[in-house]
Design brief:
By secondary structure, this protein is of the alpha/beta class. Helix content is about 40%, strand content about 20%.
Length: about 290
């Protein structure tokens, strides 16, 4: 086949363009490198308290944001900008590069790991019980309630944790479902139920706002288990675009340092977390993504 000069010139131009594009891509700064250079990171949030939310002045705050600040400050990234999305839109948004880090307190699940990368977890949340101060009925597990002939537990209509109550055999007539968590803690204070069952962070927030002198989180508490006998924990972490492995590695180093120094618990404690809400160092994103 014969080629004329115009064909040759077009081919040469295309080859040159491909080479330049390849060189440009190879030399492009990563999201992590850009963040270090600018000292700024953009974080995707769902605008939910206490995880990550915008203040009226546009600043971003929350427990997840506080942890991120402490992780990034030692490497020179000290400005955080919030980018609000619906929770369900956060994964598509980070994959579309709308922000650098997903900071909404998202839990690591194998399904989500197919779409994005996660840091190692920095909280381990479980559903827990709250009772009146002093825990007069000495309740330390859902099984304690199931074994009783009279103790009642409250939770919320449509909430996933209600399945735990059924799993341990608490009968329907001793499960009281409220429309809102605020109604549940009011019911506990009024004696309608002997305990309420909610996610740990939610329990802490409820106690802080509505029952600090009258209600306490039950401790120690035996976490509910799944059908295989494994504790039903939810592990929260930061999310990243899968291409940002350097960012993930740097954040993992920061989380490890915070945990080892005790600073992580100091950050989390004002939000109601306890040492029982910290994951063991052996728990990694890789393991959770594999379902182990």
């Amino acid at each position: 086949m014969l080629y004329n000069m115009n064909d040759f010139r077009r081919g040469a131009a295309l080859a040159a363009a491909l080479i330049l594009t390849s060189m440009s891509s190879a030399g492009a700064a990563t999201s992590f490198e850009k963040a270090k250079e600018s000292g700024t990171v953009e974080v995707g949030i769902a605008n939910e308290k206490p995880y990550g939310y915008l203040e009226t002045d546009g600043s971003v705050n929350g427990v997840i944001i506080d942890v991120l600040r402490a992780v990034l400050k030692p490497i020179g990234i000290d400005k955080i900008k919030g980018n609000v999305s619906e929770f369900s839109a956060l994964i598509p948004a980070i994959n579309a590069r709308r922000f650098d880090v997903l900071g909404a307190g998202m839990a690591i699940t194998p399904k989500r790991c197919e779409a994005i990368a996660f840091s190692n977890p920095f909280t381990r949340i479980a559903n827990v019980l709250a009772a009146k101060t002093g825990n007069p009925n000495k309740i330390h597990s859902l099984e304690d309630i199931a074994a009783s002939k009279s103790l009642k537990v409250g939770s919320q209509v449509g909430a996933s944790q209600v399945a735990d109550l059924h799993r341990v055999g608490i009968p329907e007539d001793r499960i009281v479902l409220f429309a809102r968590d605020t109604e549940a803690i009011a019911g506990l204070k009024a004696g309608r139920v002997d305990a309420i069952y909610y996610p740990a962070l939610e329990v802490s927030e409820l106690i802080k706002k509505f029952g600090e002198s009258e209600v306490e989180r039950v401790q120690p508490f035996t976490i509910a288990k799944d059908d295989k006998g494994k504790p039903l924990y939810v592990f929260q972490a930061f999310g990243f675009n899968k291409a940002d492995s350097d960012f993930v590695a740097a954040v993992n180093d920061g989380i490890k340092n915070l945990s080892a120094s005790g600073k992580l618990l100091e950050i989390l404690a004002p939000y109601g977390f306890t040492k029982d809400d910290l994951p063991d160092a052996s728990v990694t994103a890789e393991g959770l993504c594999s379902g182990s």
